[in-house]
C-alpha cells in the first residue's frame, strides 16, 4: 500500500492526520477503497492471465503419439506438484482446473472489480458531486470481503483434490458429485468464495444505488449525469437483483456436496437443468454487468478525445437501460443445446436478437460522436476507440450464436470462446485500460507516460486480434471448448498450426502487458505532476484537486449548470465547459 | 430539487392493532381452508395463495409504510416482482 | 467462404440449411463490420485534431438515430423469424420426420454407448445390442436418437452432421438426423464432463443401404451367438455391457416426458 | 468518516427518502430475488416430482407452525408499535416494544428449533440418503408403529423444506441479533422523534422477514 501512500501525500495536509491503518488499509474514503480494488484486481488479472498462458501452452503442444504430436513440457512445470504437472506434462484434471479458475478469476476477481469495485467507488461520488458514498463503512466492508474471497479462491489450488474443475459455469452434477469430478474441497471453496464475493458486490450495489439516487449535487439532474455514472447505476441494479439468485444456487450446490441434499442430483429427483437456469438467470445480466460500465467510460473518453458532445445522449441512456432490461429475458440462449424445451429456445432466440438493437444504437452513436470532431489521440482515446472497433466484432459474432439453428454447430466451440473474449477483453478490458489511463492523473496526481501508453496500446491491439480472431475459425471448424488435447480429433488436429499461432500471439499479448505494468508503477512515482483537469474535460471530478482529498471538495459548494459533454460549445472561452461553470452567455442546449 | 424529507409526522398512523387482528384471522382462515374444506386442489391453491398475497400486501402497505411513501419508492419496491415471475414461469414452462 | 470459416464438410439433410443460415448471417455481419470499421478509420483520419479547427457542436440527430435503430431491428427480426422455423424443424419433436431407425445413445464418463434394436426392429426387447463408441447408421434414412446420461452432462456432437445435443442425467432427450453420404465421421463430446472429456470420442459410420444390411445382420448374429455361449464380446469390437432389456424403461420414460 | 457522516444519516435527499431507509429498501429488493431463487426452486422441483411431497399435515406439524406464524405476526405489530412510539418521542415505549419484539423473535427461532428436532426424529431430514419420514401419526404410534410404516414423500421434500425454512430462520436470527443491538442503542438514548432512522430500517427488515414467512407458511405447510 506504500504506493498509495505516496500518491496521497498531497491530500494529507488538507486534513487532520488519520492513523496509517485507518487511512490506507481500513479506510472509509471511497477513493482509497477504489484504489485498493484497483491493486487487488490488477493482481488477479495477472494471475488469470498466467493461467491462460499455461492453458495455451498445453493447447499448442500436447503430446499425442498416436497422431504424431510430440508435445513440449510446460515451461516451469517442474515447479508444480505431481498432481498438476507430472514429468513436464500437464494433467487433464489440472487443465480443467485451469479452465475453471481462469474463467472464474477473470470474471469475478479481475474484470468485475476492475469495472465496478474500482470505478463505481472512485467515480460515482466524484461525478455526482458527493463528499463520499452513502454508507462509507459498508463500502469498506465490501472491499474487505472481496479480498478474503479472492484469497480463498486462490487457496483452493493448494487443497487436496485440487481446485474446482467443472468450468466457471459449474454445471451440475459434475460440480456437485466428487465421484465424477475428483474434486472435493476445491469446489466447496469455489462456492463459498463466490458467495462471499456476492455479499461484497451486494453491499457495493446498495451503496452505489443509494448514493446516485440521493446524493447528487444541486443541479445534477438525472440527464446531466455522465454516462459512466449512468452505466454504473444500471449495472448496480443488475448486480443487486442477479447476485442473490446465484448465491441461492451456490448455496444449494454447497449443500448438495456437504450435507447431501438433492437439488441438482438426478438420482434424488433433482434437476441439473435447474442449476443452469439459476446460473444463467444470474449469468446473462452478469455479462452485461461486465460490459455496461466500460460502455460508460468509453462514452466519456470518446467525447473528450473528439472534443464533441456525446451523440444522442438520451438515446445512449435509454440504450443502457434497454440492455439492462432485455438482459433479464435472454438467459436461455446459453441453454439452446441443453435439452430445454425447444419452444423456449425460440422465445429466447428472439429476445436475444433484440439485444442487437440497443447495442447498435450505442455503436452508431459512438461513431456519431467522433464524426466531425477535432480528435486528440491520447492513450485513453485510443483504448476507447479500440473498444468500439472490437466490441462490434464481439457483437456481430453474437448474432451467429444468437440464431439457435446456427448455434447448433457453434455451441460450446471456440467460436463462443472468441465471441466472449472479443466482448470481455476487446470490449471490457480495453474500456478498463482506457479508464485507468484516463483517470490515473486524478487518482494519483501524476500523468502516465504517453509514449509508453501508446506502445502498450498498439501491441495489445495487434496481439489481441492475432490471438482471438483465429479462434472464430477454429470454432466454426468444430473445435470444442475446454478441450485438453485438440489433436485427439482429426477434424481439429489438421488446424493445429492455428493453435500454435494463437499460443505465440497470446504469449506476446501477455508480455505486452508488462509495458503497462512498468508504466503504471513508474508513473506512480515519477510521472509528470497532473493538473486538476489535464484532459480538459467537463465533469465534476475534474473540478476537484488531483488527487482529491478526503471529502473531495472540502467546504466548496458545488452547483451544476449543464450536462457533462459541452465540448466546443459556441460562445465558450475554451473547447470545454465545466459542468460547474455558470458561463453567462453560452446558450443552453435545446435538449438534455 | 430539495423536497422535505419524509418526516416522522408526515404520514397518518394507521390502526396497527386492527391490521394485526386481520392478519391473525386470515392465518386461521388459511389453516381452516387447507384442512377443513373439501375444495378441489386447484381452487384450494388459488385461494391459499390469494390469502397469502393479501397478508403480504397488508404487511408491506401498513407495517412497512409503503402506503405512505412517495410513488417512486413504491415503484422501486415492486421492481423485482416481474423478474421473480419471469424466472419461475419460464422455468416451470419446461414441465408443461 | 467455406475455406475461410473451415466448416467441416456437411453430410446431413438439415446441415445445408444451417450452413446457408450461417453464411447469410456471415454476409450480413461482414457488411456491417466493414461499414463500421471503415467509418471509424475514415473519421479518425478525417477529423484528426488540427490547430485552429473546432469540432461540430451537435447533440445528435433524431432522424439518423431512428433510422439506424429501425434498420437494425428489421434485420434482426428477419434473422429471428427465419431462424425460428429452421430451429423447430431440427429440434422440436413434433416436427421430426418418421424415423427409419431408432437408437438410444447413453453417455457416461467417457464413452458413448449406442443401443441398437435387434432383429425385431424394436428397442426395449431382449435382442437389443449395445456397441461402445460405434455409431452405425444407414444413409438417407432419418435416424431418431434418444439421448441419456448415466452420470454427468455430456454433449453429443456430430460436427459433420451439424448436430449437437446435450445428454443430461435424468432426462431422455430426442434428436434426429439423416446422413446423406456414406463414410466415417466423428462423434465428440462438447460439454466439459470430467478429466477424460477430451478423449470422449466415438466413430460414426454411415453405411450405404446394402452395407448397412450386412453390418446390421452380422452384429445381430454375433450378439445372439455370444449370448448363447455366454462368452463376452471382445472389447475391441466395441461391445459394451450387454443390457438390451434396459432400453424398455428408457423408452417408456421418453414417451412420458414428451 | 466525519466529513461524510453529517450528510449520511438523514442527509439532504433529492429523492425524498433518506439514505438509511432507501439503502434498506434496496437491500430488501435483493432479498426478494434471493427468496425467489429458493421458493422458485421449491415450486419447480415439486411440480416436476409431485410424488416426493407429502400432503399437508402428514409430515409437518401444522398446528405448531400455525402458532409460530401467529407469534411472528405479533412480533411485527410490536415492532411497528416501537416505531410509532419513537415517532412520538416516547423512549420508554420504544424500549418496551423493542424488547418484546426481540423476545418473540427468539421464541419463533426456539419453536422452529423444536420443530426441526422433532421432525428429524421422525426421519424427516435434509440428507437425501437418510430420508425416511413416516409422518407424524406413524411416529406418534411409537417405535413399533414407525418401523413398518411407509415412507411419505421423498428426499427432495426434506432438501427443500430445510433449505427454505432454514434460510428464513437464519434471517430471523440475524434480525434478533440486530434487534438486541437496537435495544442497546435505544438504552443509550440514540433515538428520538427526530432520529428514527435506525428503528425504521430495523422495522423494514423485520417486517420483510415476516412477509417472507407468510408466503413460506402457505406454500410449504398448507399447499
Explained architecture:
The complex is a heterotetramer of chains A (592), B (96), C (258) and D (223). Chain A is an all-alpha fold and 592 residues long. Chain A contains 20 helices and 2 strands. A two-stranded antiparallel ribbon of chain A has the order 1-2. Chain B is mainly alpha-helical and 96 residues long. Chain B contains 4 helices and no strands. Chain B has helices at residues 16-35, 41-63, 71-78, 80-92. The longest helix of chain B is centred in the middle third of the chain and has 23 residues, at 41-63. The radius of gyration of chain B is 18 Å and the shape is flat. Chain C folds into 2 domains: 2-91, Helix Hairpins; 99-257, Cupredoxins -  blue copper proteins (Immunoglobulin-like), CATH 2.60.40. With 258 residues, chain C is of the alpha+beta class. Chain C is 38% helix and 22% strand. Chain C starts with a helix and ends with a helix. Chain D has one domain: Cytochrome c oxidase, subunit III, four-helix bundle (Four Helix Bundle (Hemerythrin (Met), subunit A), Up-down Bundle). Helix content of chain D is 74%, strand content 0%. Chain D is built from 8 helices and no strands. Chain D has helices at 2-8, 19-48, 62-87, 91-121, 136-140, 143-148, 155-187, 197-222. The chains are: A mainly alpha (592), B mainly alpha (96), C alpha+beta (258), D mainly alpha (223). At the A-C interface, α5, α12, α13, α14 and α15 of A face α2, α3, β7 and β9 of C.
List the helices and strands and how they pair.
The complex is a heterotetramer of chains A (592), B (96), C (258) and D (223).
Chain A: H1 2-7, H2 9-12, H3 20-25, H4 30-60, E1 85-86, E2 89-90, H5 92-128, H6 136-155, H7 178-181, H8 185-214, H9 227-258, H10 272-289, H11 292-306, H12 313-326, H13 342-354, H14 356-370, H15 379-402, H16 404-410, H17 414-444, H18 450-476, H19 490-493, H20 496-526
Antiparallel strand pairs in A: 1-2
Chain B: H1 16-35, H2 41-63, H3 71-78, H4 80-92
Helix pairs in contact in B: 1-2
Chain D: H1 2-8, H2 19-48, H3 62-87, H4 91-121, H5 136-140, H6 143-148, H7 155-187, H8 197-222
Helix pairs in contact in D: 2-7, 2-8, 3-4, 3-8, 4-7, 7-8
Amino acid at each position: 500500500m506504500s504506493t498509495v501512500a505516496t500518491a496521497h501525500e498531497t491530500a494529507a495536509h488538507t486534513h487532520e492526520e488519520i492513523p496509517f491503518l485507518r487511512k490506507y488499509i481500513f479506510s472509509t474514503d471511497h477513493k482509497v477503497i477504489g484504489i485498493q480494488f484497483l491493486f487487488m484486481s490488477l493482481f488477479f488479472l495477472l494471475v488469470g492471465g498466467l493461467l491462460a498462458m499455461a492453458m495455451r501452452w498445453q493447447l499448442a503442444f500436447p503430446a499425442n503419439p498416436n497422431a504424431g504430436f510430440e508435445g513440449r513440457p510446460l515451461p516451469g512445470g517442474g515447479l508444480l506438484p505431481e498432481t498438476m504437472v507430472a514429468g513436464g506434462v500437464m494433467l487433464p484434471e489440472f487443465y480443467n482446473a485451469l479452465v475453471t479458475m481462469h474463467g472464474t478469476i477473470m470474471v469475478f476477481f479481475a474484470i468485475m472489480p476492475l469495472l465496478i469495485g474500482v470505478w463505481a467507488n472512485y467515480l460515482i461520488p466524484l461525478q455526482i458531486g458527493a463528499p463520499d458514498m452513502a454508507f462509507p463503512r459498508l463500502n469498506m466492508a465490501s472491499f474487505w470481503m472481496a479480498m478474503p474471497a479472492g484469497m480463498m479462491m486462490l487457496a483452493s489450488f493448494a487443497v487436496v483434490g485440487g481446485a474446482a474443475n467443472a468450468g466457471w459455469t459449474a454445471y451440475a452434477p459434475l460440480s456437485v458429485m466428487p465421484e465424477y469430478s475428483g474434486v472435493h474441497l476445491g469446489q466447496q471453496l469455489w462456492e463459498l468464495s463466490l458467495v462471499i464475493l456476492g455479499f461484497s458486490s451486494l453491499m457495493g450495489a446498495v451503496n452505489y444505488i443509494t448514493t446516485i439516487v440521493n446524493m447528487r449535487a444541486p443541479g445534477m439532474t438525472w440527464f446531466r449525469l455522465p454516462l459512466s455514472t449512468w452505466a454504473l447505476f444500471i449495472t448496480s441494479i443488475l448486480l443487486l437483483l442477479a447476485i442473490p439468485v446465484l448465491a441461492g444456487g451456490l448455496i444449494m450446490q454447497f449443500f448438495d456436496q456437504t450435507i447431501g441434499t438433492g437439488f441438482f442430483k438426478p438420482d434424488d429427483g433433482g434437476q441439473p437443468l435447474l442449476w443452469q437456469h439459476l446460473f444463467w438467470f444470474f449469468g446473462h445480466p452478469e455479462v452485461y454487468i461486465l460490459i455496461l460500465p466500460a460502455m460508460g467510460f468509453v462514452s466519456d473518453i470518446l467525447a473528450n478525445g473528439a472534443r464533441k458532445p456525446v451523440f444522442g445522449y438520451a438515446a445512449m441512456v435509454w440504450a443502457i437501460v434497454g440492455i439492462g432490461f432485455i438482459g433479464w429475458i435472454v438467459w436461455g440462449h446459453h441453454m439452446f443445446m441443453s435439452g430445454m424445451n425447444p419452444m423456449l429456445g425460440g422465445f429466447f432466440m428472439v429476445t436475444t436478437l433484440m439485444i442487437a438493437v440497443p447495442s447498435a444504437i450505442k455503436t452508431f452513436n459512438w461513431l456519431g460522436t467522433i464524426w466531425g470532431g477535432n480528435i486528440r489521440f491520447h492513450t485513453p482515446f485510443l483504448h476507447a476507440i479500440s473498444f468500439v472497433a472490437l466490441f462490434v466484432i464481439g457483437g456481430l459474432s453474437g448474432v451467429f450464436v444468437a440464431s439457435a439453428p446456427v448455434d447448433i454447430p457453434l455451441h460450446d466451440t471456440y467460436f463462443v470462446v472468441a465471441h466472449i473474449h472479443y466482448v470481455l477483453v476487446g470490449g471490457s478490458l480495453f474500456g478498463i485500460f482506457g479508464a485507468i489511463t484516463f483517470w490515473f492523473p486524478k487518482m494519483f496526481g501524476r500523468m502516465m507516460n504517453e509514449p509508453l501508453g501508446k506502445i502498450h496500446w498498439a501491441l495489445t491491439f495487434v496481439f489481441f486480434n492475432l490471438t482471438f480472431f483465429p479462434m472464430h475459425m477454429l470454432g466454426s471448424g468444430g473445435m470444442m471448448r475446454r478441450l485438453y488435447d485438440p489433436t485427439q480429433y482429426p477434424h481439429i488436429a489438421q488446424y493445429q498450426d492455428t493453435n500454435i499461432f494463437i499460443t505465440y500471439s497470446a504469449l506476446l499479448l501477455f508480455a505486452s502487458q508488462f509495458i503497462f505494468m512498468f508504466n503504471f508503477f513508474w508513473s506512480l512515482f515519477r510521472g509528470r505532476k497532473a493538473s486538476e483537469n489535464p484532459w480538459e474535460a467537463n465533469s465534476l471530478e475534474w473540478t476537484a484537486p488531483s488527487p482529491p482529498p478526503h471529502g473531495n471538495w472540502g467546504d466548496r459548494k458545488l452547483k451544476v449548470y449543464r450536462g457533462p459533454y459541452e465540448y466546443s460549445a459556441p460562445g465558450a472561452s475554451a473547447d470545454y465547459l465545466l459542468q460547474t461553470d455558470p458561463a453567462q452567455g453560452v446558450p443552453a442546449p435545446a435538449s438534455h | 430539487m430539495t423536497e422535505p424529507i419524509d418526516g416522522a409526522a408526515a404520514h397518518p398512523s394507521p390502526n396497527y392493532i386492527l391490521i394485526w387482528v386481520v392478519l391473525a384471522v386470515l392465518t386461521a382462515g388459511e389453516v381452516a381452508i387447507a384442512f377443513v374444506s373439501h375444495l378441489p386442489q386447484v381452487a384450494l391453491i388459488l385461494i391459499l395463495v390469494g390469502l397469502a398475497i393479501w397478508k403480504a400486501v397488508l404487511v408491506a402497505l401498513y407495517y412497512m409504510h409503503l402506503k405512505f411513501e412517495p410513488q417512486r419508492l413504491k415503484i422501486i419496491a415492486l421492481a423485482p416482482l416481474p423478474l421473480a415471475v419471469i424466472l419461475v414461469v419460464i422455468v416451470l414452462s419446461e414441465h408443461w | 467462404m467455406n475455406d475461410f470459416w473451415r466448416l467441416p464438410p456437411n453430410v446431413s439433410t438439415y446441415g445445408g440449411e444451417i450452413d446457408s443460415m450461417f453464411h447469410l448471417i456471415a454476409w450480413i455481419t461482414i457488411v456491417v463490420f466493414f461499414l463500421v470499421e471503415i467509418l471509424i478509420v475514415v473519421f479518425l483520419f478525417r477529423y484528426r485534431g488540427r490547430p485552429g479547427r473546432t469540432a461540430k457542436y451537435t447533440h445528435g440527430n433524431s432522424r439518423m438515430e431512428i433510422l439506424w435503430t429501425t434498420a437494425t431491428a428489421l434485420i434482426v427480426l428477419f434473422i429471428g423469424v427465419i431462424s425460428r422455423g429452421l430451429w423447430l424443424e431440427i429440434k422440436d419433436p413434433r416436427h421430426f420426420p418418421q424415423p427409419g431407425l431408432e437408437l438410444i445413445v447413453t453417455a457416461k464418463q467417457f464413452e458413448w454407448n449406442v443401443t441398437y434394436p435387434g432383429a425385431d426392429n424394436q428397442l426395449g426387447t431382449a435382442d437389443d445390442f449395445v456397441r461402445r463408441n460405434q455409431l452405425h447408421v444407414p444413409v438417407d434414412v432419418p435416424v431418431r436418437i434418444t439421448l441419456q446420461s448415466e452420470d454427468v452432462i455430456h454433449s453429443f456432437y456430430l460436427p459433420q452432421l451439424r448436430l449437437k445435443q446435450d445428454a443430461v442425467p435424468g432426462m431422455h432427450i430426442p434428436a434426429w438426423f439423416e446422413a446423406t453420404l456414406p463414410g466415417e465421421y466423428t462423434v465428440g463430446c462438447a460439454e466439459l464432463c470430467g478429466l477424460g472429456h477430451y478423449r470422449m470420442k466415438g466413430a460414426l459410420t454411415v453405411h450405404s443401404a446394402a452395407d448397412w444390411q450386412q453390418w446390421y445382420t452380422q452384429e445381430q448374429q454375433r450378439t445372439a451367438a455370444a449370448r448363447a455361449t455366454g462368452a463376452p464380446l471382445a472389447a475391441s469390437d466395441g461391445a459394451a455391457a450387454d443390457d438390451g432389456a434396459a432400453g424398455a424403461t428408457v423408452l417408456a420414460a421418453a414417451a412420458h416426458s414428451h | 468518516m466525519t466529513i461524510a457522516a453529517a450528510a449520511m444519516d438523514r442527509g439532504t435527499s433529492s429523492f425524498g427518502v433518506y439514505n438509511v431507509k432507501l439503502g434498506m429498501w434496496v437491500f430488501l429488493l435483493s432479498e426478494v430475488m434471493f427468496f425467489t431463487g429458493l421458493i422458485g426452486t421449491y415450486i419447480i422441483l415439486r411440480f416436476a416430482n409431485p410424488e416426493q411431497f407429502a400432503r399437508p399435515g402428514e409430515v409437518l406439524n401444522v398446528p405448531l407452525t400455525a402458532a409460530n406464524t401467529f407469534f411472528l405476526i405479533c412480533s411485527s405489530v410490536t415492532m411497528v408499535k416501537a416505531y410509532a412510539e419513537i415517532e412520538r418521542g416516547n423512549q420508554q415505549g420504544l424500549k418496551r416494544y423493542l424488547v418484546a419484539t426481540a423476545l418473540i423473535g427468539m421464541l419463533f427461532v426456539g419453536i422452529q428449533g423444536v420443530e426441526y428436532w422433532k421432525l428429524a426424529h421422525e426421519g424427516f431430514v435434509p440428507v437425501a440418503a437418510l430420508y425416511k419420514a413416516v409422518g407424524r401419526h406413524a411416529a406418534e404410534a411409537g417405535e413399533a408403529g414407525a418401523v413398518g410404516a411407509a415412507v411419505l414423500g421423498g428426499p427432495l421434500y426434506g432438501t427443500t423444506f430445510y433449505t427454505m425454512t432454514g434460510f428464513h430462520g437464519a434471517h430471523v436470527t440475524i434480525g434478533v441479533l440486530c434487534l438486541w443491538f437496537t435495544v442497546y442503542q435505544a438504552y443509550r438514548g440514540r433515538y428520538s422523534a427526530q432520529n428514527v432512522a435506525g428503528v425504521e430500517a430495523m422495522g423494514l427488515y423485520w417486517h420483510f422477514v415476516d412477509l417472507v414467512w407468510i408466503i413460506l407458511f402457505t406454500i410449504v405447510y398448507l399447499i
